[in-house]
Amino acid sequence: MDTPLREPTYLILTALAAGPMHGYGLIGEVGTLSDGRVTLRPGTLYGALDRLVDAALVEVDREERVDGRLRRYYRLSPTGAATLTAETERLRRNVEAATARLRRRAATQPNALRLAGGAA
Does the domain formed by 7-109 have CATH 1.10.275.10? Predict the structure, then answer.
């Protein structure tokens, strides 16, 4: 899977960087990581997990029965960790470039942030 990653994929890999998780745990963690901006539905999540397993970015960690239902746990693979690291570095460089340009802009146009609604 090539970078740039779509945000939901990036957040799934980020959640799994903390350790193995089952599907509903991932849904909650992605919501937390995104401050509620990204909400995964079960069908969307499991489709994404199937694609990530096929791409060797995620592996099945284990399965267990809970209340008569099978619960599958997933973990980040070494390839997934390398992909997440590369994507995080790409995003970090983009943030640094944007931050530097916004600082220069603010220094030359002191009212620019206030006119735009003031962000920072």
Answer: no
